[in-house]
Automatic annotation (TrEMBL):
This is Uncharacterized protein. InterPro entries: HAD-like_sf, HAD_2, HAD_sf, PGP-like_dom2. GO terms for molecular function: phosphatase activity. SUPFAM superfamilies: HAD-like (SSF56784). Pfam families: HAD_2 (PF13419). It comes from the Eukaryota.
């Protein structure tokens, strides 16, 4: 009989998604998206949310414009309106229960960590400023919004491969990625 210990490889590095996994920001995004979309006479439904969650922000907004038939808006215009609300509200976002404990545990055991996020870089900067101590434990953060090496947005795994490649000495494949994916997206379950 094979023991559980023999079934798993040791993890040498961890990569985390940020919104909804580490940071309890999903409600803030939902309220901001809902408020802006309501200005155009449309409703940000759960169905719409599930179609765009985790994607690059402008890709999400293109999808929403088509799906909800939003007239008179471009992805860039919606992005600016949503960002204005988010810049105020994201400051209140807290870490999810247990997230800080896990991060501190991994740091104490010298497991290098990074973040791979589809969030707007402005939101990442605000969160980093609000949670300096915890964010300082991460080796690096890859933001698909501004990173030219991330060719395809989520649900494609490109951001995770770019993030993994930025650890020093490009470590062996015992890197574990934590990703919060919507039900229609296959989970990233293998080591990168």
């Amino acid at each position: 009989m094979t023991s559980a210990k023999n079934q798993f490889k040791p993890v040498t590095h961890c990569i985390f998604d940020m919104d909804g996994l580490l940071i309890d920001s999903e409600k803030i995004y939902r309220v901001a998206f809902s408020a802006v979309i309501a200005r155009y006479g449309r409703v940000y439904t759960n169905e719409a949310k599930m179609k765009v969650i985790g994607k690059h922000p402008l890709d999400s907004l293109r999808t929403l414009i088509d799906l909800l038939k939003i007239k008179g808006a471009t992805p860039e215009k919606l992005a600016e309106e949503i960002k204005e609300l988010m810049k105020v509200w994201i400051k209140d976002a807290k870490f999810k229960p247990g997230a800080k404990k896990l991060i501190r545990h991994l740091a104490a055991h010298k497991i290098p960590m990074a973040i791979a996020t589809s969030a707007w870089v402005e939101m990442v900067d605000i969160l980093r400023a609000c949670h300096r101590k915890t964010f300082s434990l991460f080796h690096h953060i890859v933001v698909s919004d501004t990173d030219p090496e991330v060719a395809r947005s989520k649900p494609a795994p490109d951001i995770f491969f770019v993030c993994a490649s930025r650890f020093p000495k490009n470590p062996p494949p015992e890197r574990l990625a934590f990703e919060m994916a919507p039900p229609h997206v296959p989970p990233l379950i293998r080591l990168l």
